[in-house]
Amino acid sequence: MANYADYADIIADIKDRFDDSSAATDTSIRRFVAPALWDIYARAKWKFTRKTSTIATVASTEEYALASDYNFGGLYDVVNTTAKFIMTRIGDRSYDTALPASTSTGSPYYYRLWGNTSGGIQNIQFYPIPSGVETITYRYYRKPTVVDLSTNTDNDDEVPDYIKNFYAIPL
Predict the structure, then answer these.
(1) Dihedral over Cα of 75, 79, 85, 91: its sign
(2) What is the DSSP letter of 146?
(3) Helix (H, G, I), strand (E, B), or coil: what is residue 115?
């Protein structure tokens, strides 16, 4: 087993295991490594991908974009920090049935995930619609950083997320 410091170490170890030192092999390995890492990241909610962010509400604004590195489905805690309580997630059907076209304002206590912006960022909606400035803190899982090694050898010295966060775990 090897301790990897960066992508170059992963590539070198695979080449050693197959007793192949040709430069042509590097491209094939690069095309395999990035998708394999995405698969590893997708299999669990890794502790090192947890993040916290805040939203400062604006009076009469119901919908806000979540962080650009938010991993869809990875929202796990929403707190109205100003009013000091954990908010309750409500599903689309309940939101649309119980609160149809509601214009009620106040301190929000419900939220739902809704739609995307043109950049692919998921939005969050609050009910009641905020009547003023409040701070909403949310915790989520971010998208892991995986570089595209398939076409760019300049990335070989970058360190994969799992190595940065697990201090060179032996594979």
Answers:
(1) negative
(2) -
(3) strand
Q: What is the predicted pLDDT for the residue at 102?
A: 74
Written as six digits, the tokens of 169 are 């775990």
Task: Read off the tokens for 52.
Answer: 């916290």
Tell me the sheet residues that pair with 135: 56
8/158 Cα distance (integer angstroms) = 8
Q: How far apart are CA 79 and CA 139, in angstroms?
A: 9
pLDDT averaged over 10-residue windows placed end to end, the chain, 171 residues = 72 84 75 76 80 96 90 86 95 79 87 73 89 96 69 61 55 42
CA dihedral 37, 41, 46, 50 (to 10 degrees): 100
pLDDT the model gives residue 80: 97
What would the two tokens of residue 97 be?
A: 């049935």
- As given in the structure block, the two tokens for residue 87 are 């908010």
pLDDT of residue 40: 78
Q: Is the peptide bond before 108 cis (omega within 30 degrees of 0)?
A: no
Q: How far apart are CA 58 and CA 4, in angstroms?
A: 47
Entry pTM: 0.71
